[in-house]
Specification:
alpha+beta
């Protein structure tokens, strides 16, 4: 009886393998039917033109018939046109220093019992890769497979010329998918035109000193974290400076983001775009929230920015608050909340260094703000966390274009009165 049963099981196993093999399919849609190029951006420097488009999760699934976003893989389509009479070379590591090779992506998605389909997958990825060499007077296009960034994808494309000079093209491309908080703001109608004021330097300094000391709750009756940062720059400059420094946008609170936050909170995962709680200035919650995640959702730097009605040298002025989450704790008000680092000036200093080293800072100054609260007599925020501070706000002029460390200007507004950090 044992031998017939063994034979039967072998036959069933062979049938199962054949069925599985027959079901293994790889059927990408033709690229021309997937409209990701409609969102492409183009830049040109001299005789080199670069066009880039970032595929969404749905577009990646259609073009490659694989759920690449679930594997932390994000395809970028590039087209490089060389109008010169000499060759140029594209450097893939400029886009992502740890990019995935095309055949690496294919191998990770191979079927267990379908060699024919796997070979087809290999061929498909290989033929759609972007190369490095761009011949004179030619156009090269293809995909590079990068690590996943949701919201806005920030990356460089570096092209090396024959004389070893680098041409750098910096892209900031919105990617359909998550719902970012700042995309919901009606920027043009936050203030009536008659409330917007243009200030000179002395007027700006005084106005910043007279702004509210702190964020509040919705009813405005209690003070919370200190408003310890000021950012000056066009809206795009603000986004680009922070994105270049590795800060992530923040999702609005809705069902999907709430679920992801809950899972990350319970299991200690890293959720780069986690919503932040609303805190209020000028009677409204933050206009922009940005964060830099660390190992878990319990540890991150995050900041909130609020557009003021001030204009200085043609640029909008934002007031804001930055703090560092260093853990979680239970409270009577919110049950569970993040615990902030009480030395808020250290986090403020971190932001200055971060923007400076990422080449997003043009100029900085310090101005009086919340008022000093020493270590021995700390104040508390809305959830009861203590904080201490020298009481100053840092004023940051930001740039969407790279600024070298040596070019940063320091403006002495505090008359030597600020405590040494």
């Amino acid at each position: 009886m044992t031998r017939p049963l063994t034979t039967l099981w072998l036959r069933l196993l062979v049938i199962c393998i054949l069925v599985i093999s027959g079901c293994a399919s790889f059927q990408p849609r033709p690229m021309d039917e997937v409209p990701f190029k409609n969102r492409a951006q183009t830049q040109q420097e001299g005789n080199v033109r670069v066009t880039a488009a970032v595929l969404s999760a749905e577009e990646s699934k259609e073009v490659f018939d694989l759920s690449l976003y679930k594997q932390d893989i994000q395809p970028i389509w590039l087209e490089i046109e060389n109008k010169s009479k000499v060759p140029v070379w594209f450097l893939p590591t400029s886009v992502d220093r740890e990019y995935f090779s095309p055949l690496e992506v294919a191998l990770a998605n191979h079927f267990s019992y379908s060699e024919t389909t796997n070979k087809e997958m290999n061929r498909y990825f290989y033929e759609r890769r972007i190369g490095s060499y761009v011949a004179p007077g030619s156009v090269m296009s293809g995909f590079i497979f990068t690590h996943l960034d949701e919201g806005t994808k920030a990356f460089n494309v570096v092209v090396l010329t024959e004389d070893h000079k680098a041409k750098t093209f910096t892209f900031f491309i919105p990617v359909p998918g998550i719902k970012t908080d700042h995309s919901q703001v009606d920027w043009d109608n936050l203030y009536p035109k008659d409330e917007i004021v243009t200030l000179d330097e002395e007027g700006l300094r005084k106005a910043l000193e007279n702004l509210p000391c702190c964020v509040t709750g919705k009813d405005g009756t209690e003070n919370g974290d200190p408003l310890n940062i000021v950012v000056i720059g066009d809206l795009d400059d603000v986004y680009y400076a922070f994105l270049r420094a590795g800060w992530d946008e923040t999702e609005t609170i809705y069902r999907a983001s709430a679920i992801k936050t809950g899972v990350s909170f319970i299991f200690g995962g890293r959720y780069r775009y986690s919503p932040v709680s609303p805190l209020y200035v000028f009677g409204r919650s933050q206009d922009i929230a940005l964060q830099k995640a660390r190992e878990t959702i319990h540890e991150r730097n995050h900041l909130r920015l609020y557009l003021t009605p001030m204009i200085f040298e043609g640029k909008p002025v934002f007031i804001g608050q930055i703090s560092r989450d260093i853990g979680v704790r239970f409270t009577s008000k919110t049950i569970v909340t993040h615990k902030i680092d009480p030395h808020v000036d250290e986090t403020r200093s971190y932001l200055v260094q971060d923007l400076a080293y990422s080449q997003g800072l043009i100029k900085l100054a310090y101005v009086k703000g919340v008022g000093a609260a020493p270590l021995a007599e700390p104040r508390g925020n809305l959830t009861g966390d203590p904080y201490f501070t020298d009481g100053y706000r840092v004023v940051l002029w930001v740039s969407g274009e790279p600024v070298s460390f040596e070019e940063i200007e320091y403006v002495n507004w505090e008359d030597g009165a600020r405590l040494t950090e």
